[in-house]
Amino acid sequence: xxxxYDQASLPDLLPLYYRRLFPFSQYFRWLNYxxxxxxxxxxxxxxxxxxxDIYVRYQCxxxxxxxxxxxxxxxxxxxxxxxVYSHRPSQHNTVKSGTFQALEKELVFDIDMTxxxxxxxxxxxxxxxxxxxxxxxxxxxxxxxxxxxxxGFKHRLWVYSGRRGVHCWVCDEAARKLTQSARAAxxxxxxxxxxxxxxxxxxxxxxxxxxxxxxxxxxxxHYFEDYALVNQDILxxxxxxxxxxxxxxxxxxxxxxxxxxxxxxxxQRWECLKKRVLQMQGALKKGVYGDWDIMFQYCYPRxxxxxxxxxxxxxxxxxxxxxxTGRVSVPIDLKLLDQFDPFAVPTISLICQELDKALEGDExxxxxxxxxEPEQKRxxxxxxxxxxxxYVKVFEQxxxxxxxxxxxxxxxxxxxxxxx
Length: 420
Description:
Layout: H1 10-21, H2 24-32, E1 44-50, E2 54-59, H3 64-74, E3 78-85, E4 102-104, E5 107-112, H4 130-150, E6 156-160, E7 165-170, H5 173-176, H6 180-190, H7 211-231, H8 238-245, H9 250-261, H10 266-279, H11 291-299, H12 305-309, E8 315-316, H13 348-359, H14 363-370, H15 375-384, H16 389-419
Antiparallel strand pairs: 1-2, 1-3, 3-4, 3-8, 5-7, 6-7
C-alpha cells in the first residue's frame, strides 16, 4: 500500500502527525536522561523551521506537556536538537555576556550521500537508489563497531535522515560530556577520506596499518565486490577504469593497462589488480597498499567532521518529517541493517491515511473505549495502527536500555547521600 506524498499537503498533515502520531513520551524520556542531572531537559535548545523557511532558535521547555503543546501549536516543518546550556536557551539574550555556554550534547555524526558523488555512478546530488545505499550500510557497520569496541560507547542511536543520509547520536554520559577538542579527536580517529574535490587520491593509509583500519577493511571486503564491481561497475568503462588506476603507482598502472586487455569482466580485472599489487609488494613504497587504497577511497564512510566537533551544533531530530520527501526520520534497527530500505520508510501521508483508515467505522467503539483516558494513552494506540509502529519500537528499546543504566546511576546517588 503506497500513497503518493504531495508537498503541498504538508500543512494539513503536520497537525495530525503532532497531535496523534509523534512519540512524545519516548522522546521526552530520551532527552530527559532520567532526570539524573537537574534542569537537563529544561536547558536543552530546540530549533524549529516553520512554513516558508521561518527559523526559530533557542526554544526550550519545562516538561513533556509544554513541548507537546508548543509543537502542536507551531507544527514545525523541521525540528533540530541542540546543546544543553548553562541557562535556559530562551534567556540567551538576557544573561550576562559570556556566561551563556553550551555545556553538553550527544556526540553526533552526520553522513550524507552527496559527499560520495565522485565515487558513485548511479546517482548524484540529493538522489539515492538501492545501488548506492550500500554506502550508508558500510558507514554504519564501520562506525558503530568502532564506537562500541574502540571507545566503549553503549548507547548509540542510528537514524535515517528522511532523504539521503544517516545520523548517529551517541548518548552515553561520557560522550555527552566530551569537550570540543575531544570530539574533534574522535572524528579525526574515524576519518580516512581526506582532501577536497580536487584531490585525486583521498586516502593515505599508515604503515604499519592501525588496528582500526584493519577492522574497517573486513567490512569493506564484505561489501566491496557486490557494491563497487557489480552495482557501480567501477572497472566497466575506460573512463571509470582510468579513475581507479589513477589511485595506483605508475609502475603498477602500466602493467595493468596491458593485463586488462586480456580479460573481459570487472571481477577478472579486480583479480588481476590484486595479483599485481601482491607481486609488487616489495617494490612499492611504504604506505601504498593498492587494492586497499581503492576500497577505502570508494567505500569508506565520509564524515562531516564539523557536525561532530561543535557542542552547539544543531542536528535534525529523530521523528522530524523531511519536507521534500515526506519521509519520517526514523531510527534504524541495526539487527536488520542489511534489510533497511530507505524507500520503505513511511511518509507522513501514508501514516496519516493509515490512521484515518484504522479509525473509520469504529469511531463509536473508540469513543466508548477511550472515555476518560488521557490523550497520551490514546496516542500510544494511534501510532501502533500505522507503519510507524516498528520504528517507534526500535526507539522504545533504545530508551529502555538507557533507562536501565540511569537507574543504576540514581541508586548510586541515593546510596552516596545515605552515607552522610
